Amino acid sequence: MEKVRFGIVGVSNMGSVHARSFLEGKIENGVLTAVCDQKQDRLDAVTAYKGGGEVKQFTDHLEMYASGLCDAVIIAVPHYYHPQLVIDALNSGLHVVCEKPAGVYTKQVKEMNAVAEKSDKLFTMMFNQRTNCVYRKMREMVMDGTLGEIKRVNWIITTWYRSQSYYDSGGWRATWRGEGGGVLFNQCPHQIDLLQWITGMMPERVHSFCHFGKWHDIEVEDDVTAYMEFPNGATGVFVTSTGDTPGTNRFEILGNNGKLVCENVSETEDRLTFTKLKIPEREFNATYKGGFGEPEKEVINVETDGKNPQHVGILNNFANAILGLEPLFVNGTEGLNSVELMDSMLLSTWLDKTVTLPIDDDLYLAELNKRIAASRRKEAADVVLDTSNTYR
Amino acid sequence: MEKVRFGIVGVSNMGSVHARSFLEGKIENGVLTAVCDQKQDRLDAVTAYKGGGEVKQFTDHLEMYASGLCDAVIIAVPHYYHPQLVIDALNSGLHVVCEKPAGVYTKQVKEMNAVAEKSDKLFTMMFNQRTNCVYRKMREMVMDGTLGEIKRVNWIITTWYRSQSYYDSGGWRATWRGEGGGVLFNQCPHQIDLLQWITGMMPERVHSFCHFGKWHDIEVEDDVTAYMEFPNGATGVFVTSTGDTPGTNRFEILGNNGKLVCENVSETEDRLTFTKLKIPEREFNATYKGGFGEPEKEVINVETDGKNPQHVGILNNFANAILGLEPLFVNGTEGLNSVELMDSMLLSTWLDKTVTLPIDDDLYLAELNKRIAASRRKEAADVVLDTSNTYR
After folding, report:
1. Which of B292, B294, B300, B392 to mutate to test the interface with A (most CBs of A within 10 A)?
2. Any CB–CB contact under 8 A between A233 and chain B?
3. ipTM
4. Cross-chain residue pair A163–B250, CB shorter than 8 Å
5. Model-level pTM?
6. Rounded to whole angstroms, how far apart are CA atoms B363 and A240?
7. B233: nearest CA in chain A?
8. pLDDT (tens digit per residue) in A117-172
9. Half-sphere CA count of A14, side-chain side, radius 13 A
10. Residue A288 near chain B (CB below 8 Å)
């Protein structure tokens, strides 16, 4: 069988990781044929890698798209360019994988989704954390009714510590003009996506307390506490920061049938615990006559399939889906949800009020543009950092 | 040495527990001499208890105060009566212990504190949870600088489950007129007090999302998510509910030197963990040059003195303090802080905006009075519930 031929747009941090995955043979039904970047040294780093000699270099993504060398492309450029490069790829008849986030503002992402929905090409988002066995299991337990109707969702995810030197390493980092946001857009898009994917719910109201440059000399948010209300009456809290160390990664979902807690107990281990009620809470509440008292419960250490293929899992699935060998795992248009959530959190703080979802796309863009207009230009060396084990 | 002679006003749930503590000889330097209640059966239950035959019965607290039988009194009546009965006691020349909360609204508590500050008698609050070795240790580690400047405080305390039958057991329960609040005023005053006592900080701004009768057929709040901002820039979240089971009791304080986490790992065990940084975070942030990276850390299972004398601890300390044998552990006027916090949480939701502390006492009372005026009168049997192990 022919392998799917991949091109990568942007071979800086994440793009170069993907390039090496292909060159190391980790993508069974995919082969790297082309890379595109504006920096020659980055292109050379890929083609100098073992087996990279056959990979064609481009500095213009449209040229690469039109080259006939690719069946699919991976978009790994700064956030603002994601939607346009995805649209260009789909319009060029290419399948496309987009790095997170789908974009910075909902209006742009909706335009991308409109093109994707009309296209017969496959479109996926690099939501590699969805491949984590623990998160897949959590979603399964929500979707199959094990947990029952969700009542509360609390995620404290403050394990995204960054020091000032991180922010000083790139002039575009942590600016409204360069990244369009801070911890939400750069560190947290996975958790924001998982929140809605695992629960199967988007909040209908968000009230958020974002702090801008609280712990660092930056202009974007580096500390966020968001309160959410869901259509079914559930509420939730999402707390994140790049200023906390030691951080916390603790995600609890309370349902009518019990409570699911995912705790990051070490850098490599997540523990999933389900405390199961013998009688659903709503039934107990209505029928119990003893005043004080709770339903009996049982604590279960949840087992998973142990598989956590991350980025190569997404790429293998994508190549296989293109070849018709398996269904597509992540529908790329779902990237809108996390952008909508992140935008709602910023918008609530900017407006100092509760916002309802879906947000007003034009209002958000207008508010963002105000901040871009006032965005400072940082003078900073464009340092390439060692990102090993820093993306999750 | 003469023992301190105690009277108790209100010998329903908590008052009867205190009465038995005296009669069982648990208060070394205290003796029960009088009890006051409007219900004869409750008075009889105390005097029929072993050794209770000498205890004098009263139905009017002022008569008991004037009887010459008491050096000190314990106030264990419904919340609204606390301040007036404390004031009457102090004005009668008696030392006084008040059950939590200090009152329902700040204006009333300030009037009580003004009297207490002029009095030469001792006044304490039954903040028995402050005697818990784990909470004492946490406060010690904040106060002695071990934790460093506090940056974040998150307490999810949802282990206060109550079923509808609890609320149906008393006509006064969970009404604005009868209790003046719900989970905050009845279940959570201890945690609210501990929050400010352990951290040594009161927030300067509170934005709260209270839900009234969300999980039960009641008119007061049974679900609260509060966001707090402290004068030093720290932020925090406090989440409580009587609708969650299995609940969570997890209290984390992040400081510049590390993170302290208290987790209720079973019904009888709290685990206290300190993850200590080798370099304080603010210093690391300013000096580290590597981009990605965090200070090295060490996980310490914190040992405590293991003592947790609870209510009898407060009463023994109080009797001893009256006799000049040891310093008073809890200054009763500190009860204002938890009332101010609880009031701010309700007020923020009532006004649908962030409130600054100290709150406007008159505005709070006016808002509360609106709700008392509209308060429904419940027709319910006044059932005595078995409260064993339900107060913490």
Report:
1. B292
2. yes
3. 0.94
4. no
5. 0.95
6. 34
7. A214
8. 999 999 999 999 999 999 999 999 999 999 999 999 999 999 999 999 999 988 88
9. 22
10. yes
